[in-house]
Amino acid sequence: MSTLESADEAVWKSICQERKRQVEGLELIASENYTSAAVMEAAGTVLTNKYAEGYPGRRYYGGCAHVDTVEEIARSRACELFGAEHANVQPHAGSQANMAVYLTVLKPGDTILAMDLAHGGHLTHGMHLNFSGQLYRTTHYGVREDDHRIDFDQVAALAKKNRPTIIVAGASAYPREIDHAKFADIARENGAALMVDMAHYSGLVAAGIHNSPVPVADFVTSTSHKTLRGPRSGFVLCRKEHARNLDRSVFPGMQGGPLMHVVAAKAICFGEALQPSFKQYAQQVVDNAQTLAEALIAGGLRLASGGTDNHLMLCDVTAMDLSGKIAETALEHAGITVNKNMIPFDTRKPLDPSGVRIGTAALTTRGMKTDEMRRVGAWILETLRNTENKSELTRIRSEVAEFASDFAVPGIVQETSAGSGPV
Ligand code: DSN
After folding, report:
1. Taking 50 as the threshold, does the pLDDT of residue 29 lie above it?
2. What is the DSSP letter of 259?
3. How far apart are the CA of 189 and the centre of ligand 1, in A?
4. φ, ψ for residue 393 (rounded to 5)?
5. Are 355 and 346 in contact (CB under 8 A)?
6. Are the beta carbons of 288 and 360 closer than 8 angstroms?
7. Contacts of 415 (CB under 8 A, 6+ apart)
8. Which of 119, 200, 358 best tests ligand 1's pocket when mutated (most atoms within 8 Å of CB)?
9. Is the pLDDT of residue 369 over 80?
């Protein structure tokens, strides 16, 4: 019996059920991934016991020698991985990373120019209910109606008209490579700072598959748990000239004590992404996404922009007379996890939009390749053709579970007859 099981059976049971769901199902949420066992182990270590407000060598608590070493390793690996001059690895998540940059660059009431949430942006890119939309004035660009690519004419026109203090590039639901240099040109021409939120595709940037924003942006923010495959957390990269102000914005500006167990897990994640095998992984993520996209298009789905350059695709399921909510629910019954998502120029509402967003980072971590993506695509299409047919969904679910059992999930201890802990 594990310690957790004997200490708190209710929580332990739910964790075990979640482990089973992760192992038996097909995880296609574009922002999720599976960490390595080492990342998972670091996140569950004694470092969670330690307060370390401040930065290495300048802490407000004693006993920080070892966590200082860990944070230095994380910072220097992040800089090496992305070719950055400075890294702050303390933000608890991507939202906090973005908030830290806004605190560094903006005063309340200043203007942000960012991508519209409905076109693929993020809550922290100035959505009216988010702090970013409440504290700052926001103006939004989007994608073109004909090809669903970022409308750079609109970006340039809005920058000229609204004179934003900061332009935000990067997206949560944009299936194409983003031209960071074009954003940098527009920012420079209009005297704005440029922040690139590369949370979704930072693993592809680390692998050299997606162009890097680091040489052209003033600030680059990211999470560490999507294509980068680390713990659930965030970080910011910037040039040396901004380092002091950025660090102050994170602490004491916005956070207190860093989560040092998660900083350690980030250090391990950056170390893993520096290995040559990570490049192969990231290339496979993109190959898998393109193969899955082709399979879905061949089966009758419309994809925003007609395909993908990265790890994700946005599928318009109204082409099959469904809504995103119906599609998400049916796929979940079939053991396939996706999220409903607005598509560009959606006429439906966010809680029941026209699309689903699908990503291949997690399945690729399990070792699946393009042949497997064709099978996954066939199951998705079968499910979408049978959303009302419970017995068909149950049949697909059992086929999916059997198929998934051939692909181990790194970081998850498989159940043995003797039992195992809940990780
Ligand atoms: N919530 C994340 C996503 O799913 O894309 C973005 O932070």
Report:
1. yes
2. -
3. 30
4. -65, -35
5. yes
6. yes
7. none
8. 200
9. yes
CA distance 330 to 321: 14
Cβ atoms within 10 Å, residue 371: 9
Q: Look at strands 137-141 and 111-115 and give their pairing.
A: parallel
Amino acid identity for residue 302 in this structure: R
Residue owning the nearest CA to atom 1 of ligand 1: 31
Residues with a catalytic annotation lie at 51, 53, 197, 223, 226, 232
Mean pLDDT of the chain: 96
CATH code 3.10.20.580 for 40-273: no
Structure-block tokens of residue 167: 């332009």
CA distance 195 to 236: 10
Shortest-distance Cα residue to atom 5 of ligand 1: 172
Superfamily of domain 276-404: Aspartate Aminotransferase, domain 1 (3.90.1150.10)
Q: What is the mean pLDDT of residues 367-396?
A: 98
pLDDT tens, residue by residue, 239-275: 999 999 999 999 999 999 999 999 999 999 999 999 9
86 has which bridge partners? 238
Across 362-386, average pLDDT:
98
Distance CA(137)–CA(24), nearest Å, equals: 45
Split at pLDDT 50, 70, 90, the class of 416 is very low
Q: How far is the CA of 98 from the centre of ligand 1 (A)?
A: 13
pLDDT digits (tens, 9 = 90+) for 144-181: 999 999 999 999 999 999 999 999 999 999 999 999 99
Domain residue limits, the chain = 40-273, 276-404
Query: Which residues' Cβ are closer than 6 Å to ligand 1?
Result: 31, 94, 122, 172, 199
CA–CA gap between residue 308 and residue 238 (Å, rounded): 28
